[in-house]
From TrEMBL:
Keywords: Pyridoxal phosphate, Transferase. Belongs to the class-V pyridoxal-phosphate-dependent aminotransferase family. Csd subfamily. It is an enzyme of class 2 (transferase). Its cofactor is pyridoxal 5'-phosphate. This is cysteine desulfurase. One of its GO terms (biological process) is cysteine metabolic process. Coiled coil: none annotated. Its EC number is 2.8.1.7. Residues 58-428 form the Aminotransferase class V domain. The keyword NADP does not apply.
């Protein structure tokens, strides 16, 4: 078999519940933490070299948005200084330069997720727009009354609300895969039992932004396809952290946002299989997405422009291309390896205390921990940690149904990226101890 390896697959034996398949035949193994290992290319992130409230910044909120390396910042500056112009329209040199950069970034993204064709990459403002595009455009022709759409209870609101709209509009039915008995991942038995001939679509997250689990997407995709259903993968939390290969996965659509992968805000992308995108009607009307316009009707541009109305976020797209080049230069396998190690270290340090409850699986997790501390409100905790220079997030992290299923209104979340250090994890733990103390709680060593 070409692909052994994958998350949770150590030594080459396939365990169907735990595969996030790496591109090409490189096995990715979740390793134990190697304490003290230096972060990857931290010096490329100027924003990290500052003090917040008199303390060195510890940025543990990368699942919300990542920081940007100097090369991405420089690319944005250079673009506005030397190439800014509208794309595809002008017959002048500057426009040609902007167009080359804009379309070049699309090639970089195509390569990054290993799409077969460049037209399969549609720029969107964000992942939310990408999901709405599928829900509105694909949904308008392919979903009708009584059809079933399967989601999981752990979806980000971005991968829930657009489907609610579609269901309201068409009379389709949303079905939800619940958490499994340990509450740390999706219940695959229920997933399989929900699949039927009525299932037209499965849309699920690859890596949960709260549980940190990696869903068995290959198993999900294969099972959905066996019923003739299409699959949307919300890869917002996987694409920035590991090799994701759309051809190996065989997903029909995939969405990601640029700002979580070292790129600018205001840019994301949709990957869709070409034959499916070709059948889909445009999502929004306007300039750039048309071929010919008459008074009463228009004909549409070819892919990908059919789905990119108006002047695009040109600088942002080029910035995302620079981000992808940057990540490639480091290597996604190296990033994933380091994050696995520092993620385990974070989990281990947080698990030292009786009063801390961490959500998600014990092993094979992303480098993030959503947690509760007995008697402490997550928001109070984040305010206290901020005074120590530590940036974490508190709230429901746009997953209210998941928190309801966990029996909580919200949680605190520390989320890391390859530029974070093991020392920062220690600083976070020390800050946590004093914050909990000030807030009248306690942390007892197990
Ligand atoms: C899993 C997941 N899906 C979707 C989103 C939404 O992404 P965007 O803000 O680009 O629409 C996020 C991030 O907020 C996320 O973590
Ligand atoms: C989706 O709709 C298009 C256009 O009507 C049709 O050609 C295609 O076969 C449909 N696909 C599925 C999976 O229903
Ligand atoms: C629940 O899901 C998590 C994450 O996928 C997994 O680690 C765990 O083994 C599962 N538990 C059960 C009981 O299936
Ligand atoms: C996300 O995309 C939608 C749809 O294009 C857009 O209306 C919204 O402003 C975008 N959000 C941000 C923060 O860019």
């Amino acid at each position: 078999m070409a692909f052994v390896g994958g998350l949770g697959v150590v030594g080459g034996s396939r365990s169907p519940g735990l595969t996030c398949r790496p591109r090409r035949s490189r096995a990715i193994v979740w390793n134990v933490a190697v304490e003290g290992k230096p972060a990857i290319d931290r010096g490329a992130f100027p924003i990290l070299e500052q003090e917040i409230n008199g303390k060195p910044l510890v940025y543990f909120d990368s699942a919300a948005t990542s920081q940007k390396p100097q090369s991405v910042i420089d690319t944005l500056l250079d673009y506005y200084k030397s190439a800014n112009s509208n794309v595809h329209r002008g017959a002048h040199s500057l426009s040609a330069r902007a167009t080359d950069l804009y379309e070049g970034a699309r090639d970089d993204i195509r390569d990054f997720v290993n799409a077969e064709h460049r037209e399969e990459i549609i720029y969107t403002k964000n992942a939310s727009e990408a999901i709405n595009l599928v829900a509105v455009s694909w949904g308008s022709q392919n979903i009708s009354k009584g059809d079933e759409i399967i989601l999981t209870v752990m979806e980000h609101h971005s991968n829930l609300v657009p489907w609610q709209f579609l269901a309201e509009r068409t009379g389709a039915v949303l079905k939800f895969v619940p958490l499994n008995s340990t509450g740390s991942g999706m219940d695959m038995e229920v997933f399989h039992s929900l699949l039927s001939d009525k299932t037209k679509l499965v849309s699920c997250g690859h890596i949960s932004n709260v549980l940190g689990c990696c869903n068995p997407v290959e198993e999900i995709i294969a099972a959905a396809h066996a019923k003739g259903a299409k699959v949307v993968l919300d890869a917002c939390q996987s694409v920035p952290h590991m090799t994701v290969d759309v051809q190996a996965l065989d997903c029909d659509f995939l969405v990601a946002s640029g700002h979580k992968m070292c790129g600018p805000t205001g840019i994301g992308f949709l990957y869709g299989k070409k034959d499916i995108l070709e059948e889909m009607p445009p999502f929004m009307g306007g300039g750039e997405m048309i071929a010919d316009v008459f008074m009463e009707y228009s004909t549409y541009a070819e892919l990908p422009h059919k789905f990119e109305p108006g002047t695009p976020a040109i600088g942002e797209a080029i910035g995302l291309g620079a981000a992808v080049q940057y990540l490639n230069k480091i290597g996604m396998d190296k990033i994933h390896q380091y994050e696995t190690e520092i993620g385990e270290y974070l989990y281990k340090r947080l698990s030292e205390f009786e009063e801390v409850k961490i959500y998600g699986p014990e092993t094979q997790r992303a480098a993030l921990c959503a947690f509760q501390i007995e008697g402490i409100h997550p928001s109070d905790l984040s305010v206290m940690l901020d005074l120590e220079g530590v940036a974490i997030r508190a709230g429901n992290h746009c997953t209210q149904p998941l928190h309801t299923a966990l029996g909580e209104a919200g949680s605190a979340r520390a989320s890391l990226y390859f530029y974070n250090t093991f020392d920062e994890v220690d600083t976070f733990i020390e800050a946590l101890k004093s914050a909990v103390d000030v807030l009248g709680g306690k942390l007892t060593k197990k």
